Amino acid sequence: MNASTNSTVNPSGDASELLLDTRVSDKRIQPLLERADALTRELSGGRGYIWTAIGIDSTPCEMGCSFCSHAAKWDAYRNAPPLDAAAIVAKAGELADGGSDFVVLRTTQCYDLNRLLMLGKRVRDRIGEDIHLVVNTGEMDADTVKALKDAGFSMVYHVVRLREGVDTGHTVAMRVRTIETALAGGLEVQYLIEPLGPEHSPAEILTEARRARSLGASGTGVMARVSVMGTPLAHLGQVSEAYLRRVAAVARLEYPDGGEHLCVHPPTPSVLHCGCNTIIVEQAANPRDTASSTGPWRGFDLPAARATLQVAGFTVRPAKEAP
Question: How far is CA 109 from the centre of its chain?
């Protein structure tokens, strides 16, 4: 059975359950991985996307998420001074000029809103209007959403995390309220299934895959939890690459008619053949590490991201030629 003969497979339901059943062989689910890949390539016109995130601060956070190195109670992070505005604008400009499709300003839960708005305006002025400026910050009300949109942000990264309210200091209702408020205020939403660990059940994964579609997210995908020493969930380890491929395919098969940007993080080349077409380059403060990076996280930079997508058969945004 191959992708071309797979049209009778239900793109959700039984197919997703089959993918998430570890008793089912990789050989048996291969047609579903191929189907997910074909759907994404058709939906995106063969386009690959690069999401670049700048961690602005590592302020110890009181929410106490069990996987996050920024949580104050774990004392796992070697805190660094927040990046100054000039450095943030310069980094954002370099990323935009280098071919990034999304520039993300990521903060901890209680970062000062006025400073974030100032940064948004300055970054938007630097990167122009044709690149998504994304905010990844704490909960927000309608007034905050309006202010962020007026400052130049076009998208928010916000999700209901797996085991929200159990492994986090938030509630599902709190997270959904912020997402719905952002959408009502005119911001697009990027929604990944995360932070995926070996302990998460198929039912938990499917709930978030289906929530992305029900909300109307512009993009979805999967983010594997990175084990950070000193955090409570570190001992559980990480999901295998083989299972990550399956969850990526589920994200696409559960959302076959939208969510053009389907992301995998950390960057995993084989998953770009299972429904994903978007990867992330990170730098500076990072909740998946114990210290801020002076360069790209784990050395995975923008040229590497472009090359990885191109090897997988995707076209990418051209880098700006130097004057």
Answer: 17
pLDDT in tens, 271-290: 999 999 999 999 999 999 98
Within a domain: residue 183?
yes
Distance from chain centroid for Cα 152: 20
Q: What is the pTM of this model?
A: 0.92
At 41, list the tokens.
């390539």
DSSP code, position 255: S
Both tokens of 39, joined, read 């759907």
The single-letter DSSP state of residue 257 is T
Residue 321 covered by a domain? no
- Please list the alpha-helical segments (H only) found in 170-235: 172-184, 202-215
Number of separate domains in the chain = 1
Write phi, then psi, for 288 (nearest 5 degrees).
-100, 20
∠ CA 105-101-226, rounded to 5°: 55
Residue 12, pLDDT score: 59
297 neighbors 282 (Cβ within 8 angstroms): yes
Give per-residue pLDDT as tens, 210-230: 999 999 999 999 999 999 999
